[in-house]
Design goal:
single chain, binds zinc ion, 35 helices, mainly alpha
C-alpha cells in the first residue's frame, strides 16, 4: 500500500518537475530575504540570525522544490488528491519547512496543504509566517486560507485584526464580505452593517448578497435596517428563486405566521407587500431594543388590523424573528393586554426555554404547573409545559421540586408516569434524555420507578440512537457510561433489547468488532414478531445461517409459515440460490419485504448474484 502511494507521488513529481526551471528556483530562494539582524519572521521575537537563520538544511533547496513542484506548477493540484497522497506530500512540505523555515514559498505550500487536510492550527501557523514575510504581496487565495483557518479555530478577533490591516490596501468584495461576517460574529453589528452596505454598493447592488445581508441583519435584530432594504427590493428577490435561504421566502413565512394565513396562494405579491409594510410599521414604532411602554398601545391598535389580539400579533412576530429576549422581557405587558392568556403565557414560557432561563421556569412552573396541567384542555400546551418544567428541574437540579413533580405525576397518571416522561424526552439528543432519566432515578427514594422499566426506558432513549456508539465525536466517558448501561441491560430479559440492538447491528456498515457478543442476541428468547425477525436477520448476516437451517427455533416462531420462510432464506444465504427463487415464488405478495431483507443480510457480491440470477 505504502509502495503504491510512493509510486503515485513519484509519478506526479516526474510529470511536473521539468516545468520549474533553475531561474525560478533561484528567484524564489532569493526573494524576501530577511536581514540577519532583523526580527525573525517566525514570530519568535528573536533576531533572524539567532533563530530561523541558524538552520542548516539537510538537503538543498532545489531538492525540496522539485518534490513540491506539482503544487507550484498546477494551482488546482491540491483539489483532487486522495487523502493518503496529500498526507504524504504534507510530510514532504513539513520537512521542507523545517529546513527552510523562512522561505515564503515553502510556507505557502505547507499552509495550503494543511488547510486542505483540515489541520487548521498548522495551516494558520504556516500561513501567518508566510504573511509575515510577504505582507501585502500575499495572494488573495493564501490570504483567505489564513483568514478561514483563523475563523475555523474561532480566533475571530485575530482574523478581524488581520482583515482590518489588509483591507486598507485591498478592499475587494471578498474581503468586504468576510469582514461583514466577522463583525457580526463578534457582535459588532453596526460595524457589520457598514461593511455590508459597502459591499452592497460596491458590488453594484448584488441581489444575492443583499439577500444574505438582510438575513444577517434580521438574525442580529437590526430590523430597522433590514425592513426598509427589504421593502425596496422585495420584488427583486423573486429572481433568486424560492428556497429556505431566500429572504423573500423567510418573509413570506413571517407574514403567514403573523397574519395567520393558511394558504399563501390566496394572497398576491402586492397583498404580501402590504403585510410586510404593516410589520415594518409595527417594528418601527415599538423599537425592538426596548421594552414596550403602555402608552404605545393605542397607536399600535391603529396599525395592527382590528380583529387581531395585539399581544398575539407581537408574540408571533418576534417568535418568527427568533427574538425571544423581547418576548421574555415584555411578559407583563403582553399578559396585561391580551385576551388569550393561556396562549401568551405558553409563548412566554417557550421563549424563556429557548433562552435557557431554567431558574425562571422552575420558579414560575413550580407554582403554576399542577394547576395548568389540571385545567388545560390543550394537549400541546400541557405537553410543552411538562417538557419545560422537567428539563428546567434537571438543569438546575432542584431535587425537592422534582420529587413533588414525580409524586404529582404518579397521582394523576398512575402507572404511566415513566411513559409520560419518555414521551417528552424524544425531542432531545440521545444523551440528554438518558441523563435526565438517570437524574430522576437517583432522586427517586420512594420507588416510583420499577428498576427494570427504568432500564428499558433509558435504553430506549439511547437506542433510538444506538449508532451514536459508533460516533467518534462522542467523548469516551459518555461511551463508557452507555456501555455500562447496556451491560446492565443485557442481564434483563426483554424484547426491546433485541429490537434496538439488532437494528443497530444490522445498520452498521463496517465490520468493527461488536462490543456485545452475538451469542447474547442469538440465545435470547423473543416474544414480538418484529424482534424475532430482527434476531433472525442478525443471525443470517453476522452469524451462522445453519442455526436457522438445522434447528428451526420453535421457541421463537410459532408460525410454521414464518419458519419456512426464514429457512429458505438461510439456505439461499448459504449458497443455494434456487431457494431465493423459491421464496419469491412461495410468497408472491411479499416481494418488497423479501428484497428489503435480502438487502440487509447479503453482501454486495451476493446481492449482485441474486439480482442477476433471480431478480433479473
Ligand atoms: Zn525564527
Amino acid at each position: 500500500m505504502n509502495k503504491e502511494i510512493d509510486n503515485i507521488i513519484n509519478k506526479y513529481i516526474e510529470n511536473h518537475k521539468h516545468k520549474i526551471d533553475q531561474k525560478f528556483i533561484q528567484n524564489s530562494k532569493n526573494s524576501y530575504q530577511i536581514k540577519r539582524n532583523e526580527e525573525c519572521t517566525c514570530g519568535s521575537g528573536e533576531k533572524y540570525k539567532k533563530c530561523c537563520g541558524k538552520v542548516i538544511p539537510d538537503k538543498d533547496y532545489e531538492y525540496y522544490l522539485t518534490q513540491l513542484s506539482p503544487f507550484i506548477c498546477n494551482e488546482n493540484f491540491l483539489n483532487n488528491l486522495e487523502k493518503e497522497v496529500l498526507t504524504k506530500f504534507y510530510d514532504i512540505a513539513k520537512e521542507a519547512e523545517q529546513n527552510f523555515p523562512a522561505n515564503y514559498l515553502i510556507l505557502e505550500i505547507a499552509g495550503n496543504i494543511a488547510y486542505e487536510l483540515n489541520y487548521f492550527e498548522e495551516a494558520a501557523a504556516y500561513m501567518q509566517k508566510h504573511y509575515n514575510i510577504v505582507e501585502n504581496n500575499i495572494s488573495e487565495d493564501s490570504l483567505f486560507t489564513l483568514i478561514h483557518s483563523l475563523l475555523r479555530l474561532k480566533r475571530t478577533k485575530k482574523a478581524e485584526k488581520l482583515v482590518t490591516k489588509v483591507i486598507k490596501d485591498n478592499n475587494s468584495l471578498a474581503l468586504l464580505m468576510i469582514m461583514t461576517e466577522i463583525k457580526f460574529t463578534l457582535g459588532k453589528v453596526h460595524e457589520g452593517y457598514k461593511y455590508g452596505m459597502r459591499y452592497y454598493e460596491k458590488s453594484g447592488k448584488d441581489i444575492y448578497f443583499l439577500n444574505r445581508l438582510i438575513r444577517l441583519f434580521i438574525q442580529n435584530k437590526l430590523y430597522k435596517k433590514a425592513f426598509p432594504l427589504l421593502k425596496k427590493n422585495y420584488f427583486e428577490f423573486e429572481t433568486l428563486g424560492m428556497n429556505s435561504e431566500n429572504i423573500k421566502y423567510i418573509i413570506n413565512n413571517l407574514v403567514d405566521a403573523v397574519f395567520l394565513i393558511d394558504n399563501s396562494e390566496d394572497l398576491n405579491d402586492n397583498d404580501y407587500f402590504e403585510c410586510i409594510k404593516k410589520i415594518s410599521e409595527v417594528i418601527n414604532y415599538i423599537n425592538p431594543d426596548k421594552s414596550l411602554k403602555k402608552k404605545k398601545i393605542s397607536k399600535l391598535r391603529q396599525i395592527i388590523p382590528e380583529d387581531y389580539d395585539i399581544s398575539f400579533f407581537l408574540v408571533r412576530l418576534f417568535y418568527v424573528l427568533k427574538n425571544y429576549e423581547w418576548i421574555a422581557e415584555n411578559e407583563k405587558i403582553l399578559m396585561d393586554i391580551t385576551e388569550e392568556e393561556e396562549t401568551i403565557n405558553n409563548a412566554v414560557l417557550d421563549a424563556n426555554f429557548e433562552l435557557k432561563n431554567y431558574n425562571y421556569l422552575v420558579k414560575k412552573l413550580n407554582k403554576e404547573f399542577e394547576i395548568n396541567i389540571l385545567n388545560s384542555t390543550d394537549y400541546v400546551n400541557t405537553y410543552n409545559q411538562f417538557r419545560y418544567y422537567l428539563y428546567s428541574l434537571y438543569e438546575v437540579k432542584d431535587k425537592e421540586h422534582t420529587k413533588n413533580l414525580l409524586s404529582f405525576l404518579n397521582n394523576v397518571s398512575k402507572k404511566d408516569t415513566l411513559q409520560d416522561i419518555l414521551s417528552v424526552l424524544t425531542y432531545e439528543n440521545y444523551y440528554k434524555g438518558f441523563e435526565i432519566l438517570e437524574y430522576l432515578y437517583n432522586i427517586d427514594d420512594v420507588n416510583f420507578f420499577d428498576e427494570k422499566e427504568m432500564l428499558e426506558a433509558q435504553l430506549a432513549v439511547i437506542n433510538m440512537n444506538f449508532a451514536y456508539l459508533d460516533n467518534n465525536e462522542m467523548d469516551k466517558e459518555t461511551k463508557l457510561k452507555i456501555n455500562r448501561k447496556i451491560n446492565e441491560y443485557k442481564k434483563i430479559d426483554c424484547d426491546s433489547f433485541i429490537y434496538h440492538y439488532t437494528n443497530w447491528l444490522l445498520n452498521r456498515i463496517d465490520n468493527k468488532k461488536y462490543e456485545l457478543d452475538l451469542e447474547q442476541v442469538i440465545n435470547k428468547k423473543c416474544y414480538h414478531s418484529k424482534s424475532v425477525e430482527l434476531k433472525f436477520l442478525v443471525i443470517l448476516k453476522l452469524s451462522d445461517p445453519q442455526i436457522i437451517i438445522k434447528n428451526p427455533p420453535e421457541n421463537d416462531l410459532t408460525d410454521q409459515e414464518d419458519r419456512q420462510f426464514f429457512k429458505l432464506i438461510a439456505e439461499g444465504k448459504e449458497g443455494d440460490i434456487s431457494k431465493i427463487q423459491e421464496v419469491f415464488d412461495k410468497f408472491p405478495d411479499h416481494e418488497k419485504y423479501i428484497e428489503n431483507i435480502l438487502d440487509k443480510i447479503l453482501n454486495e457480491y451476493e446481492i449482485e448474484e441474486v439480482y442477476n440470477r433471480v431478480l433479473y
